[in-house]
DNA sequence: AGAGTGTACCGTACATTGTACGGCTCAGGT
DNA sequence: ACCTGAGCCGTACAATGTACGGTACACTCT
């Protein structure tokens, strides 16, 4: 990152913005809400690194520094973008109402989170340990905990189980996003890329050899036409995790 | 990111560097190996964003542009750092020799990967979908697959199972790294930070309320003195995942 | 109606980044 | 003794976030 060190977002200021109404328009119609929406649109296309305050301002047809009247800096802006992105995650349906009990609910949660992460890959680049206290994130947490309540788990176990599923979804989604971005940047699909470096690779590692890695890597490559298939990783991992959670829950039930 | 767009690393060039010997010293003693080592040292302390070519050059007491004689650019440099960081992961012991069968082996793998990620948190910021073909990474893959061979799993399943464990470790380690970095940047522990924003938060969300989120969040906070405990998340998730994998493997055995 | 005031807006400037470009300086071969 | 090529590096440039200080408008009070 260049320029001034992008000073860490002020927590109190972020909170006030997060929970504020965002709707008092300035004299040129500029709104926190409009800034955040524009930034999300741009980040969806170009990613968080490529997102600049100048770009956001241009898109809104205002001077760059006008943004700073409404938003303290880029850090706080990304905090707002993050909360906003989860705005209508469960607007139409909530996990606890899905069929299939807690298992169906967690599958629904995984799928919905996956969808958000696919639509907004820049979320992976937002530092989120403490800032995750906006209204939408808090509501999300509340709703996602519901199907886990009353199963005999302790409160800490409920949180751990949910976090496990969400971490898995995030990890596989991140790998998928990286794959897509690499393909886009290089203009090569995984297949084309492999064909291109394959000769160099075999030449260079001629004297060493890795029988297992070779066998398994080839099998994976042929099965998915790629080194990794994020969708498959998602369902394989989710099934395994839910099987594991079932043992825990049955032990309590 | 500033400056020229940090052009995506050239795959063939990266491969040649990755598998090269790195040991021909230039006339000022400069070596690819030395550059990579210096960069890792700096990144361990300051992170990948704060790592600049100028810093690396200063540390080595050479001009900034001299680095470009040995390394095409920052992208390729991080590729080299990545492979290097996994250099002696299993130098002293390998997973397949651990007690506890495949389960003990996977626990060992998880622990060792966790250790590397803790020592080099910048690894989380290296884009690694395609570049992961250096000698150390390839050997790592070979060694980590061994304990999963001969259990009745298909090749694709072996890869999926390993990837599931590694993704979990990476996800929790990343959360832990973010937590640490945030604490360092702000100079506040999670507890101090919470005490500081708590009044603002309750004031701001006074009219809405989230009974489950409140109850569970409080329980977690009291149990771990923090919003999340990475070490606990690691073992909870690992246990669950291994329980799930056991069902898969027993079905095959 | 006129004056005053605060806030929205924004032009300019600066430090910092990766790296392109072109010149300098040596080691080694002839 | 000279040439050649590779290692080395000083300078320059475009892009970034944002500090600073100025301008212009909407409002309130007289």
UniProtKB/TrEMBL annotation, chains A, B:
<feature type="DNA-binding region" description="H-T-H motif">
    <location>
        <begin position="52"/>
        <end position="71"/>
    </location>
</feature>
<dbReference type="InterPro" id="IPR009057">
    <property type="entry name" value="Homeodomain-like_sf"/>
</dbReference>
<keyword id="KW-0238">DNA-binding</keyword>
<feature type="domain" description="HTH tetR-type">
    <location>
        <begin position="29"/>
        <end position="89"/>
    </location>
</feature>
<dbReference type="InterPro" id="IPR050109">
    <property type="entry name" value="HTH-type_TetR-like_transc_reg"/>
</dbReference>
<keyword id="KW-0805">Transcription regulation</keyword>
<dbReference type="InterPro" id="IPR004111">
    <property type="entry name" value="Repressor_TetR_C"/>
</dbReference>
<dbReference type="InterPro" id="IPR001647">
    <property type="entry name" value="HTH_TetR"/>
</dbReference>
<protein>
    <submittedName>
        <fullName>TetR/AcrR family transcriptional regulator</fullName>
    </submittedName>
</protein>
<dbReference type="InterPro" id="IPR036271">
    <property type="entry name" value="Tet_transcr_reg_TetR-rel_C_sf"/>
</dbReference>
<dbReference type="Pfam" id="PF00440">
    <property type="entry name" value="TetR_N"/>
</dbReference>
<keyword id="KW-0804">Transcription</keyword>
<dbReference type="Pfam" id="PF02909">
    <property type="entry name" value="TetR_C_1"/>
</dbReference>
